[in-house]
């Protein structure tokens, strides 16, 4: 629509040879920069998730299955958490800071694996003490429900 039809006022629009005004070109450049940055972020997130899944894939049984199930639970309960590796183990972060993690007992050469929370998690309770990690030797329905509930609480 021409300026005369839109508002009744005729004013010339200064445009370059490509037909766009300086303001339009600036807006297009800004939009392109935003899309490029978003693509880098999503590309980085996809690469970090691929690294996490590759690490889980090489974990010996039963740790690999427990880590994979933990990943599914966490990403379902808190889709905003970003998967990443933390000390070579699966973790999920908010704003680059780890909120929760899974540590393979076999990789760490310890008695059991651990699902835990770091300082980014909002698990604080009254009384000055609260649990931040759980030994994991299996995941039944009750264990899955506990992780799901804690992850939701951690990011609330």
Automatic annotation (TrEMBL):
Disordered: annotated span: 1-21
The protein's name: YdhG-like domain-containing protein
Superkingdom, natural source: Bacteria
């Amino acid at each position: 629509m021409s300026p005369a039809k839109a508002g009744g006022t005729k004013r010339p629009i200064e445009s370059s040879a490509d037909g766009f005004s300086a303001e339009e070109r600036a807006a297009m450049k800004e939009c392109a920069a935003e899309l490029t940055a978003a693509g880098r972020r999503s590309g980085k997130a996809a690469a970090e998730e691929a690294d996490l899944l590759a690490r889980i894939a090489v974990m010996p049984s039963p740790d690999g299955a427990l880590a994979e199930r933990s990943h599914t639970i966490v990403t379902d309960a808190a889709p905003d958490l970003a998967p990443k590796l933390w000390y070579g183990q699966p973790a999920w972060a908010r704003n680059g800071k780890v909120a929760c993690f899974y540590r393979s007992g076999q990789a760490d050469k310890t008695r059991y694996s651990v699902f835990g929370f770091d300082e980014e998690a909002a698990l604080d309770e009254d009384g000055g003490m609260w649990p931040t990690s759980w030994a994991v030797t299996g995941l039944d329905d009750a264990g899955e429900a506990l992780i799901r509930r804690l992850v939701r609480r951690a990011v609330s």
